[in-house]
Amino acid sequence: MKDETKLVTAGRDPEGNFGIVNVPVYHASTILYPSLDALQKTHAARAAGERVVSYGRIGTPTTWSLEDAVADLEGGYRAQVFPSGLAACANAILAVVKTGDHMLVTDSVYGPVRVFCDNFLSRFGVEVTYYDPLVGAGIGELMRPNTTAVYTEAPGSQTFEMQDIPAIADVAHAKGAVVLTDNTWASPLFFKPFEHGVDISIQAGTKYIVGHSDVMIGTVTANKEYWPQLQKSANMLGQTAGPDDVYLAQRGIRTLSVRLNQHMENALQVAEWLKGRPEVHSVLHPAMPDDPGHAIWKRDFLGASGLFSIRLKEVPKAALAAFLDDLELFGMGYSWGGYESLVILADPTSYRTATTWDNTNPLLRLHIGLEAVDDLIADLKSGFDRLNAAK
Prior knowledge:
Layout: H1 3-9, H2 36-47, H3 61-74, E1 78-82, H4 85-94, E2 102-106, H5 111-119, E3 127-131, E4 147-153, H6 165-174, E5 178-182, H7 187-190, E6 200-203, E7 218-222, H8 227-237, H9 243-253, H10 256-275, E8 280-284, H11 294-300, E9 307-312, H12 317-325, E10 330-331, E11 341-346, E12 363-367, H13 373-390
């Protein structure tokens, strides 16, 4: 089935739920057993990794519905939900590293993952080396005998470098390392991680899966080899997501295709308009033909989302504030993936370690929502008028 059909059908079970279209919300902690024999059999099945209703934290039909839909779309074996995107990132890493291990992480990684690596993993004897996101097959030169994991993200957070994930995966696997990727930007509609050598795929479902800026949730999908480690680690750490949030994510994922295609169309039109503005130094969007990562994007990806960045030309802070403060349709706020447009000021110079970000001109990350493109452009044009007046 095509993805659009999977989005409608995956994870649903009307026959098992009295014909109800959507899997109901199960609020559960305690599960009662009719006999000692039933309790013991359930316990044994759970210990063997089988999917059984045994305790609310372990899973219910509500959580399994979303997990099955995500795993089906990504092309993995099984998926696990977590209470946030960062929880998903952290748990995926913890499932595959141990004291004494070395992990390679792209220098363009989502910021909170860097904080987790530097301040949490380091306390438990896991060494992390950040690498140039453009390293490709050269990743082998950075690998050590104890390198057990390579963490990728394409395109990179804020700066949108495209990684050659298949090349990285080939080298990592040859040296016995697991490959993880953050697939939030493209979602499984526009990037198929397991077809490109990834072993574990992470999504901040808060973004495009939910799509309405009102739920925190994360997902991790693993292949068959690494699923037992992920499941065991998640259960030991007590990580799960609340049933109401899972239900809202279920609802959101059904419309992912129509939303994401519109985000892509809107973003490309806005990016093309911004490219022609005299105030803009450059547009960082891998789907643009002149972007340095366009060839990899075109080879490996099926589409683009609504998130990209622009570098402005040098401008005083007061003029930048005049541009941003009075935008009507672009809100200033973190996260993205909802129906509304957003913009934030970013500063890659503050965190890069393996590479440098030499351009000190303002970097703005934009998420293009589902508003009419003409209205978004008019809002940005008014902002540039204010910027120029304040110089």
